[in-house]
Structure formats: C-alpha cells, structure tokens
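Entry 14. Two folds queued back to back today. First construct below, sequence then structure tokens.
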Amino acid sequence: MKVHTRFLLSALDERHFPAASSPEIAFLGRSNVGKSSLINSLAGVKIAKTSNTPGRTQAINFFEVRWPGHPKPDLLFVDLPGYGYARVPREITNRWQGFVDPYLTNRSTLALCLCLVDANVPPQKSDAQLIEFLQHVDRPLLVVATKADKVGSRLQSALEKLRQGLGADKILPFSSKSGMGRDELWKLIRMAVERSDEESGGPEAPRAAG
C-alpha cells in the first residue's frame, strides 16, 4: 500500500507528546526485535533509524502517515523504546516508566498496539508481561513475529510455541526482507484506524480489501 510518511517528533516526557488527533499505531518489543525495519517496510521508505546496537531507541518517536491525496495525517506510527536489554542504563529505563507507561495507559488516540516478537526466539517472559499489561489496560493488540524468513520450515511450529507461551490468540508472521505479512498487517492497521475513526467520528481510512 502506498502511503506518505514523515518524522514528526521525539518525546522523552508526556508533556512533549503531540496533540491527540489521528489514530495511533504503537510498535513495541524487545531491543533488536526489528521495530524500525518493520516500520520502514510498511512505509516503503526509511523513516525510522535502524541499528545493530540494541537499546538505541530511547525516546518515543512519532511519524505521520497519510493516504495518497489526503492533505492531513490519517494516522501516526509510534515507535516506543525497546525493552529487555541489560546495557541500557538504569536511569534511562527508570525514566521510560515516566512516559512510556502513561502513553500506553492514557493516550486517547491509541488505536492498536503491535507487540513484536522474534520468530527465532522462544517465548520471553518480558513479552508475556507486556501482553498481560496491555490486556489489563484494555488496549487492542496484535502479536507480530518478525524475522520470520529466517525460521524456514519450522515457522508454523515456532508460531505455535509463541502463541501458547504468550497466550496470544493470533500471531502474524512478518519479514521486512521478503515482505511476508506486509499486506495483511496493513489490512489490520487500516481496520484499526477505521474502528478508531468510527468511534471518534473522524475521517474514514481506505477500506480494507477482503
């Protein structure tokens, strides 16, 4: 799907969040799970900085996304700091709690949380805790298994282990390299945006096919 995107701002404090307006899609996951690569794959251009150094993203980064022909943003992609990396200084992870938790708990325009897990890694306690937290605060979520192209013939077995270990109803396999899952993920994002717009009385997104 063709979209227009641009970086909006980085926030290290709840006071720096942009005014709540368009529906927001949050990207969450452990450090080095491939959040930036997934965002760039969806956007079709490199808008999020990728790095081989886990824990590099330390702010919440907001990106505007608009459908072709629309003058204003239709949604925002929101890239949250990765978790579970021991080398991130404790003062930084403590600071995260002051703006990451309020974002996930209070943000009125948060339409969908994408919980990214590595398809090559067994279920992790921190991922299960994130999913449990989002369910507790009643946030819509979808578990996305990144780097699915690297699993090969073991993919279905790996997905089933993740589903059982994380207590997830559905896990979408995704590969930023091969494009696996990209169209389906866009379809689910559009559906979440449509739901959010219907609830708020805002503009509709292009209808999801199928």
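Second construct, same run, same settings:
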Amino acid sequence: MKNDESTLIGPKTIEEWDQLWMPVAVGLKTLPSGLRSVVGLYRCSLGGQISAIGTGTDRRKGMEKRFYDLIRPGDSGRNYYSGRQIHKYRDRLDVEVLETGPNIEHWREIAKQLRTPMIQRHRPVWNVRNAPYMRKG
C-alpha cells in the first residue's frame, strides 16, 4: 500500500488491522457460529489467491447475516459479482474474518471504512473485476 499505511481507521492503522485476520475453520461449507455479536470484514481465498473481501455489519445479526446470505439457496443477498462467485465456489473457499468489534454502530462504521483500503491493499480478483478505479497505484 502507499502512504496510507499509517492512516488510522478507528484505533488502528491499516497495517495493524491487516494483522488481525483469523481463519474460519468451517469456511462456507456451513454457517460459521459465534459471529452474530461481532462485525467486521471477511476475506475469501480460492487456491491460495485472495478472491473477495467484504463486510458483515448487520445491526441485529452481525457478520452471521452476511455469511448466511452468501451460502443460502436464494440469491437475493448476493446480486453482485463477488457474491455470486463466493456462492458458486463456497465449498472450496478458505475464509478469514477480521472482527472490528462488537455489534454497535461505532464498530460497524469502522468495518465499512476498512473495506476499500483492504480491497486496494489485497486486490481480490472478484472485487476489482468491475471496479477499475481500485486498480490504481
């Protein structure tokens, strides 16, 4: 990343946040547990390549809601390219989460603020496919 590595988002720099990704043991084969009370980002990798980064910031169900939207049979929660790709390859993905904090507005906003810098930093192929402005730098 460029000069923004030292920019604070909430209490940490992007570099510090980037050290906090934790693996989700079950991936997206089933709904991961324990994510209802937290918000943050998720990162999916296929074959060792980071494929997608997104946020889980639902007010009532935190990150759990986003994971449910990504794996359930209907497609109304993923009518965008990376969501469709995640659903298609859900049984083969390695998944990580970066919890920004408990499910309150302050931490939901921090998760939303982190999304673009993390996409710019890692260039996940399914996110940038339709976003050429993120390929700069």
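Quick look at the second one. The longest strand covers residues 38-46. The chain is about 35% helix and 25% strand.
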